[in-house]
Amino acid sequence: MGTRVLVVDDDPTVSDVVRRYLEHAGFTVALVGDGLAALEEYARQRPDLMILDLMLPGVDGLEVCRRLRATPGSAPIIMLTALGEEVDRIVGLQLGADDYVTKPFSPRELVLRAQSVLRRAQPPVQDQPIQDGNLHIDPVRRVAVLDGAELALTVREFDLLYFLMSRPGVALKRAELLEAVWGWTFGDQSTVTVHVRRLREKIEKDPADPQRIQTVWGVGYRYGS
């Protein structure tokens, strides 16, 4: 069985096109058409990746994302958004989506995004654990622990945190982080800002006065002083 992808979209035409392209790329694909079915199917088969439309009947895509991200170790999520849904896209990233693709989209691009997200979810065995006081991150096990409790981090949040922690005191531009963590040489840099905000909520004593992930005004961010 190949890498399992759960596609959640209530448009049968879109779902069928996405399924065919993903299967051609070697993925095993399951399709569902609403949010409740997505949660049930996810619990049943534990897919490696979910491709999730925002606009769903019943439980919408944002709520599906929120529920999955409530527990550690949930699969990466690529969110499908309509062209005019920028606010919902930002909210989706805040809730823990790992990537997004705007409709109408190229199925080939979606396959490449899926491969990129899954590749980044694999453990980089050459990297070493990092300890910063009560915060410990292990890139091989892909586990981050704060005060003895495992943090519920998305794939991108984990990669961003490890990238920052492995370069303490270095000011990193948003464009550099976008390329290193997301693999994008261009794109919306607010994606980085949203993920930094989410990380601060999870690792800082006071997210409004961050001591770990600090803003370097006019540049980007650095970890520590």
Automatic annotation (TrEMBL):
InterPro entries, A to Z: CheY-like_superfamily, OmpR/PhoB-type_DNA-bd, Sig_transdc_resp-reg_C-effctor, Sig_transdc_resp-reg_receiver, WalR-like, WH-like_DNA-bd_sf
UniProt domain OmpR/PhoB-type: residue ranges: 127-225
Keywords, comma-separated and alphabetical: DNA-binding, Phosphoprotein, Transcription, Transcription regulation, Two-component regulatory system
The UniProt record lists the keyword DNA-binding: yes
Database matches in PROSITE patterns: OMPR_PHOB, RESPONSE_REGULATORY
GO BP annotations, alphabetical order: regulation of DNA-templated transcription
A GO molecular-function annotation: transcription cis-regulatory region binding
A Pfam cross-reference name: Trans_reg_C
Single GO cellular component term: cytosol
Domain annotation Response regulatory: ranges: 4-118
Binding region for DNA: 127-225
Chain positions found as 4-aspartylphosphate: 53
Name this protein carries in UniProt: DNA-binding response regulator
Organism of provenance: Rhizocola hellebori
